[in-house]
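User: I would dearly like some help making sense of a protein record. I have put the entry right below:
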Amino acid sequence: VAIVLLLFLRAWEPPFTFQQGLLPQRAILARVPFMVEDENKTEVLRLQAAREVFCVYQNRNEAISQLEGACKEALMSLHDLSDLTTLTTAQTVLLEAFTLSSIDPNAPKISYQEAIETIQTCLGNDAGNSKYDSAMREVFSPYLEIGMIKALTHDLEMGNQRFIRVIQAGASEEKFIDVDVQRVRISEVIVTLRDSLARKFENIYETKDSRLLARMVHNFLAGKLPETLSLREDLSAKARQEAIAATKPAMVTYDPTFGAVVPKGKVLGPKEIELLRAEHEAFTKSLTLKHKLQRFAAFAGLITALYLLCGFTIYQSQDRRLITDLKQFLRLLGLC
């Protein structure tokens, strides 16, 4: 019974002597340095980690390929025009799309005659068509991969506002590209697209008409750029949960040389008890084997002396049935 009692009470460890509601008459100091989690700071770190996550957007790029094809088809439909006085309504609409900027009302309008001549010069043969296709492939290749979007559909609390993670529709979730939002936002794509078209057409055609053709193509495309990116809320939420789980807790260090764990006159509440338990556990872990054996021996000596005292008292009494009667003796041991 004594052995069970010693093991149950963990006699080699010092007891935890504080209770909730106790009013200490002195400041309680730390016996050893220890650390505890600062829950408020940890929550701030977790929120920050969630805000920094790259939200996942899915790219369905078919609309970009269709727009590229529609532009080529429109150019070819105007290629054989020779008499501007017999324009159909459809041809007039197409010429307006190529000659008038939809995003810059102050940009000079290209005349119909200049537009037709430029188309005929640059796309008048197979070589010209091949150069056009090559230039458009180079210009649109990045956008087929990263997509386009009018505005992000997630807010600051949901994830990063500067970068997003793009996956292709139907492709594995493991294959992704981290993209600067500026590269896919349509309002900014319009500007970079204009410069890319001018540069590629000038390099490939090497004629003075290349810049005019680039302006015409840009005028046609600028107001029609499609939104191909859509938020994958499930994958974004998963990324946020992983980021939060990976956030290390913010720790506060308490040292015996700096201040008190609990100041004098402060009633011990749940937070104070939790703090004191952390200090107690740190102190217990700091005890060497020698100290633990000394505590165990002292406690065992106390229990042994108590048992001997009780046994001797019973033995010296007139009624010794508590130790001579086996049934009563076992009952006594059970009560102990």
Q: What stands out?
A: Residues 109 and 237 are 48 Å apart (CA to CA). The beta strands are 34-37, 56-59, 163-168, 177-180, 229-231, 251-254. The mean pLDDT is 88. The two ends are 7 Å apart (CA to CA).
